[in-house]
Design goal:
By secondary structure, the protein is α/β, with parallel strands linked by helices. The protein has a domain of about 170 residues: 3-Layer(aba) Sandwich (Rossmann fold). The protein is about 45% helix and about 15% strand. It has a seven-stranded parallel β-sheet, sandwiched between helices. It has a two-stranded parallel sheet with strand order 7-11. Helix 1 packs across helix 7 and helix 4 runs parallel beside helix 5. The relative contact order is 0.14. The protein binds NADP nicotinamide-adenine-dinucleotide phosphate. The site of NADP nicotinamide-adenine-dinucleotide phosphate (NAP) has 24 residues, from helix 1.
């Protein structure tokens, strides 16, 4: 049995899809039973409860061989993830697959990379078999400005001239399923997962222009304006500051601008390129 956290989210959802396609038994811990109903229909066993509820987590971990641990960024992320790690050890889980991110390392002081780093250190010091996934910026991050492109043939985003080797969450989820079902081949491994190309948001605009057959303009958004926008839509200051820090790193310092062959090696096929991704999703931008 495999337990997937965040199963109604981007990476968890894709991981579930690929585990089911492999015929693997899947359990998910979800806080919203209604939202998770499609998972149940596909044969996923649901444990309904908040990820901070240790009783629900214990129930979810019972009899589990492998866990994908991926949770959203926020002020509780560190405590939740460290708590699940301890409970997974106590429950005798064989393999913990943890989703960190490319920019997380001991020397990166930003709060979200630090959460991932502290959890990775705790995982590596635990008695569990582990695999660490470190994906780059998700291509799905270009979805939120689809409405702007459709309405104005332009979009703003706080990435400046920064670049990243963006990757498709569908590939990341498929890799997670491969790692979980592959077991000991992947024990003790850390995988930096990138897309095939280093791209900027100027490139995003060019690719959208090509796919849509009309000129699309990228207007870099000042970080302060992004901060003010996030403050209206996110629940905690911690999360607002954390996301702004990440965009500052991407726009001003690089750090996401390298590629590896790892994703393709694990998938056994080339990872999705941004050009393919844009072409596939062009309808939402008003093609
Ligand atoms: N975005 C990027 O470019 C990027 C790149 C590399 C790594 N990452 C890392 O990816 C992780 C986020 O993954 P994601 O984007 O796949 O997440 P996501 O789409 O935001 O999904 C989050 C999931 O967690 C669930 N959840 C949230 N709070 C919960 C709670 N209290 N109890 C139970 N479940 C709860 C959500 O459930 P509901 O559906 O009920 O809300 C949802 O299923 C972060 O750690 C981030 O650092 C992100």
């Amino acid at each position: 049995m495999f337990l997937v956290t965040g199963a109604t989210g981007k990476t968890g959802g894709q991981t579930v899809k690929h585990l089911l396609a492999k015929g693997a038994p899947v359990r998910a811990i979800v806080r919203n039973e209604e939202k998770a109903a499609p998972l149940k229909e596909q044969g996923v066993e649901l444990v309904v409860g908040d990820i901070g509820d240790t009783d629900a987590v214990a129930k979810a971990l019972d009899g589990v061989d492998g866990v994908l641990l991926t949770l959203p960024n926020g002020p509780n992320q560190l405590d939740w993830e460290l708590g699940i790690l301890k409970q997974a050890e106590a429950a005798g889980v064989k393999h913990l697959v943890y989703m960190s991110s490319t920019e997380s390392n001991a020397d990166n002081p930003r709060r979200i990379p630090q959460v991932h780093w502290k959890v990775v250190e705790a995982i590596q010091a635990s008695s569990l078999n582990w695999t660490i996934m470190r994906p780059n910026f998700f291509m799905q991050g270009i979805f939120p400005f689809a409405g702007q492109v459709k309405a104005n043939d332009a979009f703003s985003f706080p990435a400046g001239d920064g670049t990243a080797s963006m990757c498709d969450v569908r590939d990341v989820g498929e890799v997670a399923a491969i790692i979980l079902t592959g077991g000991e081949t992947h024990y003790g491994k850390t995988y930096d997962l990138t897309g095939p190309d280093i791209v900027s948001f100027h490139d995003v605009a060019s690719l959208l222009s090509k796919a849509l057959g009309r000129d699309i303009t990228y207007k870099p958004m000042p970080l302060q304006a992004f901060h003010d926008y996030l403050a209206k839509v996110l629940k905690s200051d911690w999360h607002v500051e954390g996301v702004v820090e990440l965009m500052q790193e991407m726009s001003e310092e690089g750090g996401l601008d390298f590629t590896t062959d790892t994703m393709g090696e694990l998938l056994g096929r080339p990872p999705v390129s941004l050009a393919q991704f844009v072409e596939e999703h062009k309808a939402m931008y008003g093609a």
